[in-house]
Each structure stands twice: as structure tokens, then as C-alpha cells.
Amino acid sequence: MPKVTNGRVIYVKHPTGYYEPGVHTKYVEEQLDTDTVPLNGGILVKILAISSDPYMRHRMRDENIPLFAPPLKIGEPLDNFSVGKVIRSEDPAYAPGDYVSGYFTFENYVVHPGNITHVFKFCTKIPKLPGLPMSAFVGILGMPGKTAYQGWLFAKEKAKTSKTLYISVAAGAVGTFLIEYVKTIHPHLKIIASAGTPAKIDLLKSIGADVAFNYKETDIAKVLAEHGPIDIYWDNASGSTLDAALCNMSTFGLIVSCGAISSYNEDQGAVKHFEKVFERSLSIHGFIVGIGDEAKRALVEFEKEIPPLVLAGKIKLREHRFYGLKSAEQALRSVHTGENFGKAVVIVDEEGGAA
């Protein structure tokens, strides 16, 4: 194979507010000979699609600040959940032509294991499923789908005797998966869902939300008081949204803490009504996808249960596609401002988006 142009998205500066393309990252190119690049016993992967996720904002920080997600390194490429195709291999576990899901750098071509050393690093072979693009493995069959599935296991038993479920930031990849999955296995639950634009509210209604409202234009507490009390709250927001939920939870209610997007770019994560936890005997279960033995067992069950539901159309693929590695910066910006509609994914190579 002749020399190719290898694009790279490099992290160059820590943001103090919202992430900005061209300021905190930059796109560069280099020439790469795919026949001679050293593999050191590993594999050379052609990247097909890359996920863009809100949690990446947590990684854009000084390495001395401790958080759950490993920090990005100034001068190094970004890395995140991706899918690709093996084009060279010195590892007997992989052969050219294999499709893989892994935590890879934002480049057209990546050597694995390479230089990534943090705990999120992984690489596993994945199948080509009929009627689905490979990009599905960074969405409904990837981290967002697995997040929703793993988190719902904490609520599954309580859901049997519950009446109401409230999901914040519900139009994202995790929220939409959760709505369709819950409607499939717990159709008796009334689902209340919130998002930030009229189009997203229409989406939530179309996929099964019984009550959908725009949190930017509506008093959250009033909506929850009208349609509650809330037996289960799936929290993607924290801050004032969590406060409104706390004041409208039923006794012995459950909060599944999945994210805190209100605090990602601005300091809006304060909770004022934490006393409701003991007043109403609430349970709160936080988690990070894939972390812990319980999570690992859940992901084994995910592989058995979810692909058939996706192939049957009960859980649908919804993607906001950004084409080409050059668009990765805009994809990252979109998930931090709410501009994306559906799972934000960078289609690096056309094969990644082809069903």
C-alpha cells in the first residue's frame, strides 16, 4: 500500500468553559507508510468511525486534577471509543479484515496497543451485522447503549412495582435507548422525559415518552409535581434538574446517577435539596459503564439481549453524522452545546457508515 495521508486531532489547550475547535484542539496531517510503520507485535487499524461524547469534557483538564476519566495530554491526539478495520497484524488474535471496537486515537490509522496506557484502553473483535453500519458499535451497540443497559439493571426490580420514570437529557444517545428499552420490558411505566429543543421534544414523544417537555421553557418542578410523584429518576443532568426531582420523588424512590451535564462547562452542579434523600428514604446508585465486576457481568448480558432488539427495530439507530476526521472537532463541540440530534458520530471512512 502506498503512503497515505494520516489526519490527527491534537489536544493543545485546556478549556476553562466551553470547548472550542481550533482553540483547544487542532487538526494536522502527516504522511504514513502503512506497509512499514512498526507494529511491535500489535495491529494497524484503519479507523472507520469515532464516538463524540459529553464526558470528553471531563478529560480536558490538567492532569493533576483527579477525576473518574483519564486526562487528555497536551500535544497528543484525542482518544475515545471507535471502530475500525485491521489492515496489518503481528498479533495472532487478529487478522487483516477483522473489524474491531476499541479506545483509539483520533487518527485515520492507529497502531494498537500504541501509546495509550490508561484504564479505558481496550480492543475487541466485533461482527458485521446485517442492515447496520459499523458506527452502531459506538452508539446503540457501544458505550451509550451499554451505559443505559447497565444502569437500568439497578432499577429493574423496582420498576416492577413503580408507576413513573423521569429521564433528564433524554434526547441523547443514552436517553433514547433507555426510553425504547424500558417501553419494551416495562410497558406499564409512565415515562416523563426532558430535552432542550422543540425538535427533540417531538422525537421523545415519537419513541414512547408519555410526557415530554422543554426544560428551558418549562418549570421542571411543576411538570414533575403534575405528573409524579417520581418513583425512578434517571439523572443525566444534576444541578437544578436533580433538585426538582428530589422535591418530587416518592417515598423509597430510586435515583440512578448517570451523568452531570449541567456542571460540565459551567459550575451549575450544586444541589440544594439533598435533605430529601433522608426525608423520603431515597436510594441513589451511581455508576460508570464497564467499571466493576457487576458491570462486566451486565455487559455479557447486553451482548445476548440487545443486538436482537436492535435488529428487530425495537431499539433504533439514530445518528448525527459528521463526515471526515476534519469534522471531529465540530462533533465534539456539538455534544457540549446540545446541537447534535441523535448520537454524534464521526464517519472517518465511508465503510463506517455503510449498512
Task: Provide a descriptive summary of the structure in words.
With 355 residues, the chain is an alpha/beta fold. It folds into two domains: 3-138 and 318-353, Alpha-Beta Complex (Quinone Oxidoreductase, Chain A, domain 1); 143-286, Rossmann fold (3-Layer(aba) Sandwich). Helix content is 26%, strand content 27%. Strands 3, 4, 5, 6, 7, 14 and 15 form a seven-stranded mixed beta sheet that branches. It has a six-stranded parallel beta sheet with strand order 10-9-8-11-12-13, with helices on both faces. Strands 1-2 form a two-stranded antiparallel sheet. The mean pLDDT is 94. Residues 173-297 form the Alcohol dehydrogenase-like C-terminal domain. Keywords: Oxidoreductase.
Q: Which terms would index this structure?
A:
355 residues, alpha/beta, Quinone Oxidoreductase, Chain A, domain 1, Rossmann fold, seven-stranded mixed β-sheet, six-stranded parallel β-sheet, 11 helices
Shape: globular
Q: Can you identify the CATH class of the largest domain?
A: Alpha Beta
Strand content: 25-35%
End-to-end Cα distance, whole Å, is 26 Å
What's the average pLDDT?
Answer: 94
Major beta sheet summary: 7 strands, mixed
Number of domains: 2
Order of helices and strands: EEEHEEEEHHEHEHEHEHEHEHEHEH
Domain Oxidoreductase N-terminal: 36-115
InterPro entries: ADH-like_C (IPR013149), ADH_N_2 (IPR041694), GroES-like_sf (IPR011032), MDR_fam (IPR045010), NAD(P)-bd_dom_sf (IPR036291)
Keywords: Oxidoreductase
Pfam family, one: ADH_N_2
